[in-house]
Design a protein that fits this description.
about 525 residues, alpha/beta, 8-stranded mixed barrel, 5-stranded mixed β-sheet, 20 helices, 22 strands
Length: about 525
């Protein structure tokens, strides 16, 4: 190839080049301006080479080439000559594009996967800052989690679970607009990109309503009919922020809250701080358990008939060297969420039994005391409670009659059959069982009749200020009557005044605890309180 009158001219070509010239949209259609540019660059470059990609204009099949121009140093020629070479990259690029499309798609539903979703959204956002187009209007990234999916998977099998995912995907596709994007970004998690028009609040309400519609009708899968629900987390767009992955993270933080509130939740900046705090607590709590930095405090249980100490409730306390005293209201949910509740619960039970043995040694006899230890719903569901309790009692030489396990109503509600089996096994060990926070959850008389419960604990919300509110007195009286009819004892929590203590005693409450008697205190102080109280 040479240049005559500043226009490139091909003076010699090999058979392959000639064959491509004869094809529709063949290489003879290479833009002369492109060749002129390459020749100009090759003439000036020290390397004497220039390279550009070029796409043919074949209406049937577009082909893609790498075009290279190299300067030929030949003194015998009267004018500059260049070697033009083309490498057909069509198959390579098509294979790459096909592989990329495959990696960007969910194989089960055909929807974009997380990577594909991020790519589509960020491409869509980038288009609105180029070619003179208007800035991208506000939008929302929404994540949807199918509730109880793991249970469905375990009970019905993978085939039914996959069928459920496919059906949810189809229902979602049937309810989105042309401008929306739906993707499957996890096992039972979907994501939507939704441009917003008009008022964000009104538009969001309509969108959420459409999403909730997919859960209204039961899902018929194989020979099963399943009613499911979903949690919805939302992240709203902010000017200048186009990182889709960040929006997904924000919506997932809101989604976590939605699972508890059972409502669609919108991400707020404060939630990121809370999430970071939870992550920090998880890391530090793990170290605290490993390094034995936790401590048990003990709150006395008072016999309302004579004022004697009959036992103590053991309560975990955590004083971190950097963060100070951290409330169990904050670290117990973190422990449940990340799985640390199992080692934490075992530690609390073991430590409580050890302290009981230490008190016996101090007193020189076996004290007439019980120790109560809380078992969370998460620990009850995941741990082998009867074997764990039995082994700890043996290791500490603690009589089972001196241990009371406190369970919440949610333990029973989540899986009544399993709860009954586990509680019966515990009762067979001669361990006492108390129903904690009674009256605040899903109270069911059938559970009380069928389960081996020894004690009903009246929640502090009914006890505090009960003398000022007739309804609370009526509720407490009803619980006491119910417990008496079922042969159970009662413990009132949150006793803060002498008047409330005397009223509960007069109503027939068995035991009481609260700040009127003593707040939770370290083991040594609890022992001294007991000795003083019992004379």
């Amino acid at each position: 190839m040479t240049r005559i009158d500043d226009m490139p001219q091909i003076v010699m070509a090999n058979p392959a080049f000639i064959e491509r010239q004869l094809m529709p949209g063949g290489v003879s259609q290479i833009d002369a301006m492109l060749l002129a540019e390459l020749i100009s660059i090759a003439s000036r470059n020290d390397s004497g080479r220039a390279n550009r990609p070029w796409t043919s204009t074949d209406p049937v099949k577009i082909r893609r080439y790498d075009v290279t121009v190299a300067r030929m140093e030949m003194d015998s020629l009267n004018w500059p000559h260049f070697l033009l070479s083309l490498i057909d990259r069509t198959t390579e690029i098509e294979t790459h594009d096909s592989f990329r499309r495959e990696t960007m798609r969910d194989s089960l539903t055909g929807l974009p996967n997380r990577a594909g979703f991020e790519d589509i959204v960020e491409t869509r956002l980038a288009e609105h800052g180029t070619n003179g187009r208007a800035a991208m209007p506000s939008f929302a990234i929404i994540t949807i989690d199918i509730a109880r999916f793991s249970q469905i998977n375990e009970c019905a099998g993978n085939v039914v679970a996959d069928e459920l995912i496919i059906t949810v995907a189809r229902r979602l596709m049937g309810r989105i607009r042309k401008t929306d994007v739906v993707a499957r970004i996890g096992g039972n998690e979907f994501a939507l990109f939704v441009p917003l028009r008009g008022s964000n609040e009104r538009e969001l309400a309509r969108i959420i309503s459409r999403i909730r519609d997919i859960f209204l009708n039961p899902y018929r899968l194989s020979d099963l009919e399943i009613q499911i629900d979903g949690a919805i987390g939302i992240a709203l767009s902010k000017t200048g922020q186009t990182d889709c992955a960040n929006y997904i993270r924000q919506s997932q933080i809101a989604l976590k809250r939605a699972k508890h509130t059972r409502q669609a939740e919108v991400y707020t900046p404060e939630e990121l701080d809370k999430a970071r705090r939870r992550f920090t607590l998880e890391t530090e709590l793990r170290k605290a358990i490993e390094l034995d930095r936790l401590e048990l405090y003990f709150q006395p249980l008072i016999d309302m008939s004579n004022g004697f100490v009959t036992g103590f409730e053991a309560l975990a306390r955590w004083k971190d060297p950097d963060y100070g005293m951290i409330s169990p209201v904050e670290f117990i949910p973190v422990a449940e969420e990340c799985g640390l509740i199992l080692p934490l619960g075992r530690w609390a039970l073991d430590r409580a039994c050890k302290v009981l043995g230490e008190w016996d040694k101090k007193a020189g006899e076996e004290l007439p005391l019980k120790v109560s230890v809380n078992v969370s719903a998460a620990q009850f569901a995941r741990d082998d409670i009867p074997n764990m309790v039995s082994s700890i009692l043996r290791a500490n030489n603690t009589k089972p009659q001196r241990l009371c396990l406190e369970l919440t109503e949610s333990v029973v509600v989540s899986d009544p059959a399993r709860a009954a089996k586990v509680m019966s096994a515990l009762r067979a060990l001669n361990v006492s069982l108390a129903m904690d926070d009674f009256g605040t959850g899903y109270s069911n008389l059938a559970y009380l009749q069928q389960l081996p419960i020894d004690i009903l604990k009246i929640d502090r919300s009914f006890v505090t200020h009960m003398l000022k509110e007739r309804d609370k007195v009526a509720i407490v009286r009803a619980i006491l009557s119910l417990a008496s009819a079922l042969g159970m004892e009662t413990t009132a929590e949150g006793i803060e005044t002498l008047e409330i203590s005397q009223t509960l005693a007069a109503l027939g409450c068995s035991f009481g605890q609260g700040y009127f008697y003593s707040p939770p205190v370290p083991a040594d102080e609890a022992y001294e309180y007991m000795i003083t109280r019992m004379g």
